Recover the amino acids of this structure.
């Protein structure tokens, strides 16, 4: 079932596109996490059953007593039905089948661990809509879209599975997730240690909140990825913004840009260059997220090490004309948007999936998932843009009639004061810009960080591949080692 947009939701989409044209990083940057794990191209054959569970719309109040059907997927092909473990994917901002098809790590280790696999859909995404077609109609109906409600959904569902599936009552449950889903898996262990014995939080930026990490780290890492992938690659991208301003200052220049980039919708006026530059900025960010060592279709069909392929067009040694530079930028962008050669034109309103999950994520970013980002144009390759919480709040009020709570995530999940928790693996790729907001050092013997120097966005959660660097192979082996230790600990605790 696909979500049908009502008039209110359609208005929100239009407002979002308008704000994107203003090139305000405040809200636009929040969109990037919605792009994790949307790979339609899995070549692996998997088998699972689809189920629906009646969840309460509101776990924390008593006036709203309605329920909705939460979708979840189960594979018990390799499960030891006498108490074998359960690997539980904490679904994030999208259709759960996408994550199921893309989280190859769980499918690869299921037989070794004799584990049941469960992929639970996040409320308000995919088919798990608390108010059906009205779920996105207004902020009143969106009010129950929070991480806390989603975690409670997962906790209630796990208890239901353990009490109704024969042989599962003594099963140890390990939460697994990537990106926002990884944040949820970590928080699941923190909030419900009685429900899950441990968690793997892959590429989970649990510290990408106000006052926890510098707002510029994200874009610095993007820039470093390009700098290491080709001579002068980052330098020429930094120079390109001024070149776009120069060329777009005339009607002839706008037409040249439209033709050179094969745009589906030509640039008509100077102001169009703002949305054009925002589109390119998101393109470079997406490439950093999916800089995988093999061909993949995570966001778009791409070659192996796609940034290296992009940088081959941007290795100018000295000052070149604006037109020559932008011709290189055009060829570089087409590596991302037209690697297969099948795209008749490039659509600047699309950078990845057409999923409507982005609308829900915008709402979450406007309430509790407040993740500051900024650029300075010196330590990064982008135009300078400061983090402005008031501007961010005003955008959210325009979109939804609400104001964000910037410090709420730190209050409810502990911020950096998490040493009292246990049994959480935080894995991060050295190429992934989200690693700047992640946990990259051990906090205790059981709150451990695994850094994958050659890894992009949650590479360790993807299927094993012949081109995987040794660092990710070692990371997966270590993750399984910790899983086995947690399972053994839980069994001993049960016996005692």
């Amino acid at each position: 079932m696909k979500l049908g947009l009502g008039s209110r939701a359609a208005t929100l989409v239009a407002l979002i596109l308008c704000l994107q044209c203003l090139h305000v990083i405040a809200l636009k940057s929040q969109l990037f996490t919605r792009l994790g794990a949307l790979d339609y191209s899995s070549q692996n054959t998997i088998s699972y059953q689809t189920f629906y569970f009646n969840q309460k719309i509101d776990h924390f109040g008593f006036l709203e007593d309605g329920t909705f059907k939460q979708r979840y997927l189960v594979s018990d092909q390799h499960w030891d039905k006498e108490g074998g473990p359960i690997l539980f994917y904490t679904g994030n901002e999208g259709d759960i089948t996408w994550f199921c098809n893309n989280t190859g790590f769980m499918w690869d280790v299921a037989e070794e661990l004799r584990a049941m696999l469960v992929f639970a859909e996040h409320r308000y995404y995919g088919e798990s809509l608390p108010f059906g077609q009205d779920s996105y109609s207004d902020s009143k109906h969106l009010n129950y879209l929070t991480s806390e409600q989603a975690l409670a959904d997962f906790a209630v569902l796990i208890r239901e599975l353990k009490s109704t599936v024969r042989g599962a009552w003594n099963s140890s449950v390990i939460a697994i997730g990537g990106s926002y889903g990884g944040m949820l898996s970590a928080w699941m262990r923190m909030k419900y240690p009685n429900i899950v014995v441990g968690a793997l939080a892959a590429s989970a930026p649990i510290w990408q909140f106000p006052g926890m990490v510098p707002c510029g780290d994200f874009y610095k890492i993007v820039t470093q990825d390009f700098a290491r992938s080709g001579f002068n690659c980052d330098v020429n991208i930094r120079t390109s913004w001024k070149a776009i301003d120069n060329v777009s200052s005339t009607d002839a220049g706008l037409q040249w840009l439209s033709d050179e980039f094969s745009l589906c919708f030509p640039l008509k006026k100077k102001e169009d260059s703002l949305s054009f530059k925002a589109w390119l900025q998101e393109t470079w960010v997406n490439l950093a997220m999916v800089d995988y060592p093999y061909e993949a279709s995570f966001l778009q069909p791409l070659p192996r090490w796609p940034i290296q392929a992009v940088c081959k067009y941007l290795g100018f040694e000295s000052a070149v004309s604006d037109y020559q530079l932008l011709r290189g930028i055009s060829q570089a962008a087409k590596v991302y948007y037209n690697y297969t050669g099948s795209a008749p034109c490039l659509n600047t309103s699309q950078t990845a999936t057409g999923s409507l999950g982005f609308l829900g994520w915008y709402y979450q970013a406007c309430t509790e998932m407040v993740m500051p980002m900024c650029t300075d144009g010196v330590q990064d390759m982008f135009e300078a843009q400061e983090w402005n919480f008031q501007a961010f709040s005003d955008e959210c009020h325009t979109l939804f009639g609400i104001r964000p709570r910037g410090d709420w995530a730190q209050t409810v999940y502990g911020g950096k004061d998490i040493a009292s928790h246990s049994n959480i693996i935080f894995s991060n790729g050295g190429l992934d810009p989200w690693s700047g907001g992640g946990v990259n050092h051990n906090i205790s013997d059981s709150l451990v960080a695994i850094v994958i120097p050659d890894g992009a966005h949650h590479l360790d959660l993807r299927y094993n591949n012949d081109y995987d660097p040794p660092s990710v192979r070692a990371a997966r082996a270590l993750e399984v080692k910790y899983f086995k230790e947690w399972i053994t600990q839980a069994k001993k605790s049960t016996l005692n």
